[in-house]
Amino acid sequence: MAGVLAAARAFLQQKNIPAAPLEAEVLLAHVTGLDRPGLYREAGRRLTTREEARLWELLHRRAAGEPVAYLTGRREFMGLDFLVTPDVLIPRPETELLVETALALLRGHCTQRLLLADVGTGSGAIAVSLARYFPAAVIYATDISAAALAVAVENARRHGVSGRICFLQGDLLSPVQEILPPGSLSLVAANLPYIPSHEMGRLMPDVARYEPRLALDGGDDGLALYRRLIPDAYRLLVPGGYLLMEIDPAQVPSFAPLLPEKDWCYRVERDLAGRERLVVAGKKETGA
User: Fold this and answer.
1) Whole-number Cα distances in Å, 154 to 115, 132, 165, 232
2) Annotated binding site
3) Cα(269)–Cα(189) distance, integer angstroms
């Protein structure tokens, strides 16, 4: 197996795949059913003909640009293993900042039953992570895509939190407003499409070609969906509740007019790369 792994690495490096050594390990582990340390524990093992054929099929697909997460059907997020398909955006490490911030904001309410919402849930990574790490939460997770919701439902089942997440198909918070009265939610999390339409052509080829456009295109300036979300979130949040929105760093100046001072106070958190990534908006206590 050591020779096959070396050949896989060399092949991906030749095809200019940036993380070739790591991705060769991930694909070989997927094919053999081993974890990555197991590849080295069993370095002397010979692959079956079927395993080797499958590995090279996946290597060629990766070389053509198909993301590893779609090849394996898995992606780790917040220390949890998530099912992913081409119907959902692949969870990104920077989005963990949203979950970590939400958990920090909610930490003082661990004994209270709180209602949260995850808008545009996709794979369910945010909703499932919040449910796993904050047992007091009941979460309403929405998505306009039925196919994406099917993936999210399966991820909730896998992680044992199906009973605390209500999955709803529909536009942004519209299906939640049909169920809950104003002032019901303690927190709204949203990682909505925020790439301006005119910049879609500049995306990395593997993103532009394989990931769902519906989960990426945010309209003319990337903020079309957030403009519609903010007023609905304001109505549904309790006074003192929070709206968390992942954004592109270049969009930070555009949020001031969207979050009027009489209604909101907000700050912007930076991701691990030091980029302004997360708008944390609090509904003012005087809000109704």
Assistant:
1) 21, 14, 12, 28
2) 120-124, 143, 191
3) 14
SS3 98: helix
pLDDT-wise least confident of 84-93, 192-201, 202-211? 202-211
Q: Which residues are annotated as a binding site for S-adenosyl-L-methionine?
A: 120-124, 143, 191
DSSP 48: P
Q: What is the pLDDT of residue 288?
A: 46
Average pLDDT over residues 150-177: 98
Task: Compute CA distances 164 → 132, 135, 160, 161, 285, whole Å.
Answer: 10, 9, 9, 6, 27
How is the chain split among helix, strand and coil, in percent rounded to 5? 45, 20, 35
pLDDT, position 203 = 65
Tens-place pLDDT, residues 178-200: 999 999 999 999 999 877 776 77
Q: What is the mean pLDDT of the chain?
A: 92
Which among 87, 86, 214 has a CA at the least distance from the CA of 149? Answer: 87
- Give the C-alpha separation, 96 to 99, whole Å: 5
Q: Which residues contact 100 (CB under 8 A, 6 or more apart)?
A: none
* Ordered domains of the chain (ranges, CATH): 2-64 (1.10.8), 74-283 (3.40.50.150)
* Distance from C-alpha of 124 to C-alpha of 161, rounded to nearest angstrom: 11
How far is residue 118's CA from residue 172's CA, in Å, rounded to a whole number? Answer: 9
How confident is the model over 221-256, as pLDDT tens digits?
A: 889 999 999 999 999 999 999 999 999 898 999 999
Cα maximum dimension of the chain: 68
